[in-house]
Protein 1
Amino acid sequence: MRLSRSFLPTLKETPAEAQIASHRLMLRAGLVRQTASGIYAWLPAGLRVLRNIERIVREEQNRIGAQEVLMPTLQSADLWKRSGRYDAYGPEMLRIRDRHERDLLYGPTNEEMITDLFGQSVKSYRELPQMLYHVQWKFRDEVRPRFGVMRGREFLMKDAYSFDADYEGAVNSYRRMMLAYLRTFQRLGVRAVPMVADTGPIGGDLSHEFLILAPTGESGVFYDAALEEQDWLAQPVDTQSTESLKGFFDNVTSWYAATDEKHDASAWEDVPQERRREGRGIEVGHIFYFGTKYTQAMDISVTGQDGAQVYPEMGSYGIGVSRLTGAIIEASHDENGIIWPAEVAPFRAVIINLKPGDALCDALCDALYEVAPDDLLYDDRSDRAGAKFADADLMGHPLQLIVGPKGAVSGVVEVKCRATGARYEMTPDEAIALITRG
């Protein structure tokens, strides 16, 4: 994309309404614009980031055998009345009545709808387990939306739902999803710590929140550094083996991790001093086992192995896709702007032409750009160099490929790494190889 022809409206000044770093930088870098309270339009660069996060989330869901569906944003109120949640949910739910006086709602979540869809098709334990997910917009009418996409009213979410014939199967699905989440966050370039969360009246310990570590996080976090040292992508876990999944899960949950609300000082003392870490975290995911809560309330059963009807055991698993955009920025920025992890950045690199109109500079920039014109941003504007560097840092491109008259004459490209600030001189072929590797 050539910057001179693009819709990337950066701002020099910080908007007055932006209270936290991610909100300020998303507005200044031209990623989003507010259209109503707590509702945002995603501009081209922001949408590219959102799509990259979606892609990684999908790939890791598919990797554990989850199947993607797409459920509508509008749901029939009758489904929620069957589960008993329609009146209990509260004013966060946006209730709608169509021209035929039928009650609808803009879905804040999808347990009822997925349970109904499941019940229409699955009739026997032989068809279990099933794990279904989708990536869809949700709406919750927050009393006080704030902090940009971190706490908006409309948000993009990945929600998944598992159906199993018995408790053991449900636990396996839960453990499988925990592995998928840890892999997902590692690929997104952020540190996410799983914390035991409340399970409500169901009880047990099968509920975990995932908190990205960031200085501006809403919760205090205490955790064992051993959690940081794991390479979840390389973990040799057989996701079809109960024993392998149990070993993985027991290993993860053996390390201390807690928020300040649930901090156990005596247990903290058992963590070796050199491995104790403290910080703050932003919740970006939640996995939850709730048994037969919805299948029983909605009378959705299957034929069991003994011929009797049984209610499938369920779990739900959410990731805030749009919230992750803000959380990643909170965890990865400096005074100059965003520092995108490579896999989620809107562009692989920005090419900065320091002298547009110079034949050698233009030729070298064009040669670099033609390698991957859909994945590179080419700053071909006639602006002064300082403005180009400032925008490049603000937008957070992982690499800056800088081409000036002296370098063009000698066949050299200067490469700056945004994360470290390190600069290198490369030949055009070396720079092209770097772009190709992504």
Protein 2
Amino acid sequence: MSETEEHDMELKPVSPTVKTPASWFTGDVYLTPIYNGTEPSRMTVALVRFTPGARSNWHSHAVGQTLHVTEGVGLVGIRDGSVVRIHAGETVICPPGEEHWHGAAADTFMSHLALLEALPGGEDPTTWLEAVTDEQYQTANQH
């Protein structure tokens, strides 16, 4: 590449970390936005950090969601009671429309990259539902 060629690469500064809304999460959960695509990209990426015992509400994603664990041990549950225990380095793919929840195991932090796509036109692809009960969470931790 010559010195006069233009570069399309963009370095983005680190976005501020925010505490997630209590209406969507139980316990202390923090989110750092990484990327929100601009057309034609619809990709959204965030680093989500869960304190021990913290978890999302039940929810689904119109285009699915990929979770890549970067630290700790977590849980991902679906409506039939199935639970996957996830560890650093592992990836879980949640299919479109599947109601699920995810969070840290009871005794450890868990961080993951959340990767999903917005709907055309930038519409939010996530449908938030009710909280995971303490009983559901305690049962999940026994897996």
Protein 3
Amino acid sequence: MHVLLTESSFGDSDFLLQPLRDTGCLVSRCHSRAGLCRALAVGGHCPLDEPFAQPDLVVDVRGQAAELTAREFGVVCAIRDHVPVALVSPDPDVRAGVPPGLENRVTVIDVDGLLATCRAASRHLGVAGVGG
């Protein structure tokens, strides 16, 4: 299973990178290490544009903010490409907020549920974890 990871604030998704890989997922990020959208970086490309390796799921790590931040525009790209989106809070005691207009287009899930889902999908697909 290929997961594309994005976040509302720089570094919020870092804690999920290795656990997702440990479930057997291939993990890509919307942004370079410098924080630039990978599609807008010189010589870059968006993982959503990969014809044979498009992500199966976009995971957005966000708090309860009402609006999407610029770092979360990958959510809009995913919805336009018909890729499912899961919202996860970086705080286990707080549910991720759903921005207006996305109420029926995304799934809010906690980290444990996300990892269990990814683990099951990876077992079902027989995919080995790879870094990205």
